[in-house]
Design goal:
heterodimer; A: 430 residues; alpha/beta; Rossmann fold; five-stranded parallel sheet; 18 helices; 11 strands; globular; B: 569 residues; alpha+beta; Uridine Diphospho-n-acetylenolpyruvylglucosamine Reductase, domain 2; Uridine Diphospho-n-acetylenolpyruvylglucosamine Reductase, domain 3; Alpha-Beta Plaits; five-stranded antiparallel sheet; 22 helices; 18 strands; disordered C terminus; binds flavin-adenine dinucleotide; binds iron/sulfur cluster
Chain lengths: 430, 569
Amino acid sequence: MALEEFRADAMRCTRCTYCRWIPFDLIKSDRFAKGCPSMEAGKFHAYSAGGRLVTALSLMDGRSTVTEKTKDSVFKCTLCGQCDVSCKMCRYDMEPLAAMRELRFDLVENGHTLPQLEPVLESLRTEFNMLGKPADERGDWAKTLKVKDLTKEKAEVVFHAGCRYSFDGDLGPVARLSVKILQEAGVDVGIFGEAEHCCGGRAYGMGYRGDLDNSARHNLRAWKAAGVKTVVTPCSDCFHTFKRLYTAEAGSDIEVIHMVQFVDRLVKEGKLKFTKEVPMTVTYHDPCHLGRQGEDYVPWSGTEKKIFGQAVAYDPPKPRYTGAFGVYEPPRDVLKAIPGLKLVEMERNREAAWCCGAGGGAREAYPEFSAATANERIEEAATTGADAIVSACPWCEQNFGDAVEAGAGALKVFDVMALVGMALGIEEEA
Amino acid sequence: MESSRDISRDAYRAIEDIVGADNITDDPAILDSYAFQWLAELVRPERSHYMPRPWAVVMPLTTEEVVAVTKVCNKYHVKVKPISTGWYHWAAPLKDDEPTVQFDLRRMNRILEIDEKNMYAVVESGVICAQLQAEVMKRGLNINIIGAGCSTSIVASASAYFGGGPSSYFLGSNSDNLLGQEWVTPAGEIVRTGSLSSGCGWFCGEGPGPSARAITRGTLGTRGGLGVFTKCAVKLGPWEGPPVLQPTGKPPAYRLPIPDNFRVYTVGTPSFEALAEIYYEIYDNAIGYIFHRQFNLAGADLAAALWLTYLDPNGTMNDVEARSKDPEVQKISEEARVSFQIILQGRSKEDIELQDRILDEIIRRTGCYKVERFCEADFAEFTNMYLQRMGHKHCNFVWVGGYMGSWMQAGTPDFVKGYVKTAIDGFERDQKSGLLVQCGGDAMMGCGSTLGGGGFFALEQFVSYDPNDNASVDACIKHMEDAITDCKANGIPLGKEYLYLQIGWTDERIWDDLSKMPQQFVLNFQRKIKEAFDPNGLGDRNYPWLPEGWGQQKTIAAGSAAVAGVGKP
Ligand SMILES: Cc1cc2nc3c(=O)[nH]c(=O)nc-3n(C[C@H](O)[C@H](O)[C@H](O)COP(=O)(O)OP(=O)(O)OC[C@H]3O[C@@H](n4cnc5c(N)ncnc54)[C@H](O)[C@@H]3O)c2cc1C
Ligand code: SF4
Ligand code: SF4
């Protein structure tokens, strides 16, 4: 796609500002009505999805050129997709999120990059992870596990830990627990260990489409060689990348399952029983990439056609991604199945969830913006009376953890799988 | 007057000192996000989607900052133009050659007070209807949300522009509901109106003395042409529903469960005569909380196909096309052709049952009927959600992103039914080109009232065109011109399309037209007001006036000195 292909979206944007808010029907208070972290940071209309469509149009038409301020307005956004949900409440002919991504690609391809992102991209290109860690430490988390090594063996299922679970010592137990659960369920599972590469999704969000292509090529080739049919991951960023971006950009048809979906299935089939009480009140934070951006992806290629004279339809019909069918219930059902645990909801939940602030390169490029976005969520979580905020994505957890550490509140931060471990009583041994 | 380069250097710095560097910008791409406006392509040269670019956008946080920036603007002769959420093209500057500071008021976003006992709320300009509604409902109160929907600023509709909506029938129009207000005049002075001017709080919009509200408001408001309204109080009405709306279902058509003390119906009528008749009956019997002709905005031919598709979270426009050919759906279209939505709110079981019985009797007597499919639970709950929160108004643009509202002449139901045929015939004729969305000649939507208490309403023709297709844009412009010709030919006062087209005209053309209008003394009086409150001409012609020497010279004897004192603290 080229930016020009989004011209119609820009021309048809009505500047309605719906993209700044959660869907209006879901607003329950003045305090938690807003939906767009970028607007909260940048304030001017250009920091909303609608504003970026105008920026794209203005640049395409030569009405303006890229300045530092323009770059700031384009990149200071977590690509959380809330705007996309709200816009599509009433529109069938708009793709604001895709357009904003394309605007980033365009800027990057024309050399308008952010220096802050260079170290991470360098790490991706040389060490195949987004954390600046040596590639040969990537498999350390699994050293105590007995699991197939897919560089040498074959398996139906690959467990893809992702950058954070691989390198963050605190998250290692969650990754190990996940593998054990898969094994105990009789799944033919393996890992790539130190040969695992980053999914590339975060680089894509930062505007580097080529880096996603490289990661996708590597991972898909490795999976194919190992006979893999399904990838299971506890990381929502990886989940989204494999499920949607690899399908869209690299033609992948591999099955993609998030670990919470797998656990949910086992619990519902009675194959996994929680035996230990976890006496805690928790609130669940929907990761953007598992929730509203986690819908099944159906490849489409076609053209716009006019019906009723001027209304816009597509030939063939184009699937719509509105956030309606994200992965919302599996993590909640898993939590509800844990004895002693009480789940309470934040005002902005499911397709209306406020972002954690870690996505779209925000954490790396704009730490203050990223932290403010996380703080906002922690404040919202605190109003529920919960003891802890729980998520199913290590990037959310890290941003929340950092926010709490910096004084945003007294909440604990957990991964759903960590609570699963407690409920199974195998937390320590994992 | 300084050159614009001088303005840029000195005025920018002076304003930056007031609001801080983060709250002012003159970055061209960011300015374009303000210049880009809905409907611009209908009135701007070469069908440009941009209104004139502001010279700078400024985001004040306080009234004091608005005052200080306005004073700088007076010093450097830079115009001022406020924008709240910016869903109306005339919130942008109107002329290319006039440096204008655009005040973006979204940082002034506090709900300052909700006075439950006296039933009013005080808000700043950045507060949108949805935010205030969510808070007042917790106290058993409600606000009127304008037909543009809950995304819009309360202050904008209460203080600066029209103000009618589906609930105005019961809750009043926001122009009626306006109580005390705080106004920063283009001269940079703070004017407080009504009880506020006497230090007595916000509870009353009038007095002492002549009506300051009449100066700041009128029917259509100043539309940003006469300074900035920073705060205002609006009257609240009773809400007997849940304290927090708890919708169910998936997007886009969330459903709002209907409590036992509410009823939600779509009522079909055999003709527009019958529509007027049933309106009078409902109004005479004083029942109903929300009264609106909503779903026909999609065009009577296609409304059923569109909204039934909208209920399906997987639905696409292709499905609308398929549904429109389904004989069952076509039957519903016919049933709902001349229909409206009504929501009853009861204060008790007895009350709601009585209202329900009265409505049934009125329906029976007028030969109307309930549109069965639209009264089924899924559709009724969606209707309830739509009309209580008004969060789906972007559906005005659902077909292709371009919508222009024509007609909309307000009056009694008998007056409105008088222009319906002309509006339908003209629209049907203009759709034949295929350059407008062909949804049937009746795409007329309208609030049950544009005045509190009802009895007075209007129907607006929803003309959908593709803003990405110049031929379609041209067809819309032609339709606007045709509507004006149709009005003139049939002795009907001009509608909204006329107001829109004026935006593209020169001052002289507007004044020439205004000179031929009745009641020119109003425009001469407004000139006096402008001279008093805007001595340096910082406001634009959105606040209309006639210059001396134009039109009839008979003015009412209100000198600028008399006007200038009104409402000042
Ligand atoms: C699809 C659609 C449907 C509409 N239907 C209705 C309707 O049914 N009823 C109705 O009343 N209106 C309707 N409108 C008009 C419009 O929504 C109103 O003008 C509304 O008040 C806009 O709110 P806003 O916050 O977007 O205002 P803006 O677009 O920001 O401003 C609207 C006007 O008010 C001025 N203004 C805004 N804030 C201030 C302020 N603080 N001080 C001084 N001037 C100010 C602006 O300069 C501009 O001229 C409709 C508009 C659209 C686009
Ligand atoms: S992107 Fe969509 S929601 Fe945002 S202003 Fe444009 S049309 Fe409205
Ligand atoms: S993706 Fe998120 S942060 Fe970016 S514009 Fe949309 S809502 Fe705002």
